[in-house]
Amino acid sequence: MNSLAGKVALVTGGSKGIGRATCYALAKAGASVVVNYSSDASSADAVVKEIGQERALAIKADAGSVEGAEQMVKSALDRFGRLDVVVANAGILPMKDIESTTEEDFDAAYRLNVKGPYFLVQKAAPHLTADSHIILLSTSLCHASTVTPNYLLYCSTKGAIEQMTKVLSKDLGRKGISVNAVAPGPTGTDLFYKGKSEQMLKTIAGFNPHNRIGMPEEIADAVVFLSGEGSRWITGQILGVNGGMASV
């Protein structure tokens, strides 16, 4: 029997990369899936088609706004009548050190990476029952022994996510809702590969004891684990999914 049969999951940024792999993995485990996207309707529709129209719904919404959070939750409830798993995956990776960061850079990064997940949880929580699961996305770079300065802005947003995970788990635990975060290492999405030379990719792979870059499906499998019965006694934790690149 599929571990998530009869459950409904909402995945922000679900049309590409880790989000897309997560939608497929949740569906394979038995869940119906709400696939949020910001602009690329064709990619989101392709995910829905692959899963099946009866068990998937594509929703265009701004994952960095309160209005978007309300829209996504309402759409899930209207279509499927319940919500059991919330995966706040949507985010951006600004490469900005302290000198180069503008106010616009800062606001944009915190809007999507922090404000969006914060208010998505706020809007979803009243509709979640005991044994529901919230999974946020951090990064193993928050725990790596060396990080280059241009990751400052990005890592600061993910540091906020990790604190949200810990504090929310205490708050929502009273309702029986689990809150955890997945912290991927370098993962082979289209966005990750864009603009990187073969030599750079080899260098990044060399930072890992397995001498390779992670796959979106490996991150998705961890999300599915944290969404199911097998993780019932795990909450407030940051799960490093990085092949041993960093200890979380």
Automatic annotation (TrEMBL):
The keyword NADP applies. This is NAD(P)-binding protein. The keyword Hydrolase does not apply. Keywords: NADP, Oxidoreductase. Belongs to the short-chain dehydrogenases/reductases (SDR) family. Pfam families: adh_short_C2. GO terms for molecular function: oxidoreductase activity, acting on CH-OH group of donors. It comes from the Eukaryota. PROSITE patterns: ADH_SHORT.
